[in-house]
Amino acid sequence: xxxxxxxxxxxxxxxxxxxxxxxxxxxxxxxxxxxxxxxxxxxxxxxxxxxxxxxxxxxxxxxxxxxxxxxxxxxxxxxxxxxxxxxxxxxxxxxxxxxxxxxxxxxxxxxxxxxxxxxxxxxxxxxxxxxxxxxxxxxxxxxxxxxxxxxxxxxxxxxxxxxxxxxxxxxxxxx
Length: 175
Description:
The chain is globular. The longest helix is centred in the last third of the chain and has 26 residues, at about 150-175. A hairpin with a 2-residue loop joins strand 8 (about 115-125) and strand 9 (about 125-135). The protein has helices at about 35-40, 45, 140-145, 150-175, and strands at about 5, 15, 25-30, 55-65, 70-80, 85-95, 100-105, 115-125, 125-135. It is built from 4 helices and 9 strands.
């Protein structure tokens, strides 16, 4: 197992490990309650607030049927007109602690369908998020790691951190 720790905000760092020859595991702490972080992963309007790619990419389509067997569809649009899509299906949903779903990009650069497991654990009023991606093969996992996915995830998680702070600020202002 290898471990890479990438710098994050003052709240947390992103830790990336390879617990098996086909898996990548990412952990990060968010300064927000578990139900709020879970909702930011499962409510389309909230996902559109933070799940962007690198500079120039925006989540344009976000369709979620949040039930076991329900489908997901994400399409990111680049300002130059390019798009990138991904579909999947939910295998397990335990609100607000666990999601298991399949994922397959339209242009399959990951070597086939992946299975993603995301857990949300209470961590002294914050949320410890653990995301594990199981690839079809070691070559697929290594190929995904070679794309710079971990720096992209660090950027997305930083966006989520900021988005969660803005949601909490808005909730305080409404109270």
